[in-house]
Amino acid sequence: MEVVIAPADQLARLAADAVEALLRGKPDAVLGLATGSSPLKVYDELVRRHEAGLSFARARAFMLDEYVGLPAEHPERYRNVIEKEIASRVDFEPGAVEGPDGLADDLVAACAAYEAAIADAGGVDLQILGIGTDGHIAFNEPGSSLASRTRIKTLTRQTREDNARFFGGSVDDVPRHCLTQGLATIMSARHLVLLATGKAKAEAVHQLVEGPVSAMWPASVMQLHPHATVLVDDAAASRLQ
Ligand code: F6R
């Protein structure tokens, strides 16, 4: 695992460098996209590079997770968030960005179909990740099986409180359930690039990098990945030895 400690703008450029190098060498690469605040500067940087000539036209992308039950037009539905933050701002082909279907009648079947779609695409080349204050990646909350695949999960109170800021501050408006890629799904990606900034992430980053590999700190499974890059600012790194 490579850990880089730098200011947030530099971290975003480093993550964008990795995406750009991938796309230049493999224009039909498969990207893994996270939502939340952590990757936003990366997406802004990728949009700048797109305006300077970087093309996503042959690339595909898979999202990490989705809330269950948010109406199709809800601005916090992750499909809409990804559309707004990156997909609509670069030249992905229509349909090239996919996410788990949190509105499916049969959620279990939707999870299986999502796993099959990722496999059919040849797997994810580069997965962008954030980390929750409780150590989740995607929505694999503490206690998630390290062998898990895309499935329905219940969000912890902590995650719903953390995400209330996207729902006008109301924790009651944050959905209780989600569909999320599993830890084994994420670990199948060929390169993991995780971004974390701010003091609230310091304990989770410590456990990710220096803790024992444990389902209680799900991101710690990344210690077993052959190509994982952890990009953190000083505050998020403040608990590292
Ligand atoms: C979002 C996701 C989550 C977030 C995490 C951190 O798709 O998978 O794991 O990355 O909750 O969220 P932020 O970046 O908003 O602190």
Task: Describe what this molecule looks like in 3D.
44% of the residues are buried. With 241 residues, the protein is α/β, with parallel strands linked by helices. The two termini are 15 Å apart. The chain has one domain (2-232): Rossmann fold, CATH 3.40.50.1360. The protein has helices at 8-25, 40-51, 78-85, 107-120, 157-163, 183-187, 202-210, and strands spanning 2-5, 30-33, 60-63, 65-67, 97-98, 126-129, 151-154, 177-180, 191-196, 228-232. The model has no long low-confidence stretch (mean pLDDT 98). Strand 2, helix 2 (40-51) and strand 3 (60-63) form a beta-alpha-beta unit. The protein has 7 helices and 10 strands.
Q: Which descriptors would you attach to this protein?
A:
binds fructose -6-phosphate, alpha/beta, single chain, three-stranded antiparallel sheet, Glucosamine-6-phosphate deaminase, about 240 residues, about 30% helix, seven-stranded parallel sheet, Rossmann fold
